[in-house]
Design a protein that fits this description.
The protein is built from four helices and no strands.
Length: about 130
């Protein structure tokens, strides 16, 4: 489980960071009574928070299984790095788009990274020796 540890450790950090961000946002919204105000801001933060948590779990599962597939080490590393980069890029781009709208264009790069990493995993799952 050498390569998978990268995905697992980064996922735990990402879960912690975005759970804290989500908690701070909920405390702020509850204290300021701005539930109905700033709808774009609130929906972007919620979307970023949701994507970050879901992708962190996906990346964690990726890390648990990547070392069990029958692939070359370099391909395993590429898949792990792409999964981790996608986990970071997509929610970060959604959150940073609040500061500058063109930064939202980075989010699809995160999605592409996740898709390519999943293609590698699926390929590896079919290459695994049947036991």
């Amino acid at each position: 489980m050498k390569i998978g540890k990268i995905c697992i450790r980064s996922s735990w950090i990402w879960l912690l960071v975005f759970t804290i961000i989500g908690s701070i946002v909920e405390i702020y919204l509850g204290a300021t009574d701005s539930w109905g105000k700033e709808i774009a801001w609130r929906s972007s933060v919620k979307a970023s928070h949701s994507h970050a948590l879901c992708l962190a779990f996906l990346n964690m599962f990726y890390g648990l299984f990547i070392d069990k597939v029958n692939l070359k080490e370099n391909l395993k590393k590429i898949g792990c790095y792409l999964s981790t980069v996608g986990m970071i890029l997509m929610p970060s781009a959604i959150l940073l788009s609040l500061l500058s709208e063109p930064l939202a264009m980075i989010a699809p790069l995160g999605g592409i990274s996740i898709i390519v990493s999943l293609i590698i995993m699926v390929y590896g799952q079919f290459q695994t020796n049947q036991e």
